[in-house]
TrEMBL record, chain A:
InterPro entries named among the record's database cross-references: PhnH-like_sp, Phosphonate_metab_PhnH
Organism: Sporolactobacillus shoreae
Domain of life: Bacteria
Signal peptide: none
Protein name (Swiss-Prot/TrEMBL): Phosphonate C-P lyase system protein PhnH
Entry keywords, A to Z: Lyase
Amino acid sequence: MINTNLSHFDEVRDTQMIYRQLLDCMARPGKINSVLQYIQKIDADLPCSPRVFMMAATLLDREVTFHLLSQKKEDAVRFIEWRMRSRQGEMNQADYLFIDLRVDPVEIDEMMDVIRVGTLQNPDQSATLILCVDDLSDQADLPLALRLRGPGIQEKKELSIAGMDPEWFRKRRQINEEYPIGCDFILISATGKMAALPRTTLVESEGL
Amino acid sequence: MDFQLLQTYNYAFLDEGSKREIRRAALKAVAIPGYQVPFASRELPIGRGWGTGGLQLTLSLIGDGDCLKVIDQGHDDSVNAVSIKKLVQTCTRITTTTDSEQATIIQTRHRIPEVPLRKDQILVLQVPEPEPLRRVEPREKETKRLHAEMDYSSIWLRLYEDIVRWGKITIGPDYPAMANHRYIFNPSPIPRFDLPKLNRAAGLYLFGAGREKKIYAIPPYTDVTPLAFEDYPFETEHFEGCACRLCGSRDTFLDEIYDERTGEKVYQCSDTGNCRKRQEGRHSDE
């Protein structure tokens, strides 16, 4: 059995708080909410990173599948499967994809070409990507600066990201072209800054 | 053996698996405004059709620090609203209020409070019939296809036939509207008076249909356009020359009430929480 100490993380109350922050992020694309206090409750030496554990605890159970890309992948997958009773699925079938690893543009293309995007009748049967990034800011001061428009945003919203390949957004635009088909992004930094980009959000950016 | 149970049911009544499923559906609903996300509606201690969709959303949202308001047709004190409020309070120990400005979550049936929703507030609406196309097409499989293909000609025809036959559109409450220029949705049986409040609002609106097992959402700052024709524009209910008999308001949604002894017609605010605040404000002015 995997030895874990998660006595500080309350899977009822803490996941509720995380969900509310996540729902607010999803309703207001580009808005950064902090979930640092919940990440700090999670052991740093778990087989998966604390932020992956936190999101997995909030979203996963036996009714959905996930796919994880990370260091020590096998241990981490086994740990999440054991802990959440969820199953790892192939990339093209997973409901939730956790990307806790730097992926090169070729791999991004391959991945984004196969993930679930739903159908016109059931656009909800699509993948949600949880992407671990280095940092997020609501000003244009980080390498990948985006300007966002769409539902949930009053006029325009600035979001800049460190540690994320622009290829993600190029492919995202391609996938989300035929709305309501598409995929949703959740971005989260190691310091607990969280932001979301549902498929309705239009991204304008200099570099893209 | 004598057992003392510490807790007889989970926090917020539903088990964690149920809450997670509702949460996942709500997140998808927010990502696709107006699209009805199916979910496995749970059994609750109230009957389906009595607000179970709204209640499940509320239970999946609520946590320490929240303040809940529940209204039924605008009233804080109707039996259903009080029962729902008591149930949530018993299994969470959150605080409740009748003041819509103090609440963080407002569960409602058939009204949107008069005071506009703030950024930090979530309005949960109970929905009897989530499918706007059910008026013209009884088969679920078919309405899903019509939404997928954005084939809304049948509902437009229904509105046109109304005008031909009656000279105006006869749908009163639950007036269909377009969300984010893509999906036609039912705003639940709120009066037309409340429908413009959904358009580019500051707060988040979640809709739960327990019997029909659907969740949908209108995120903040989302375009909501009531269906109407250029020459037959959308109209809200109006109350010219009427005022609330309690607070004197002339700009709120009024209920028409008959005095049971004299048979006289009087008007009264439908939003009782707001009406009470106005009355108190008026007394302190005097």
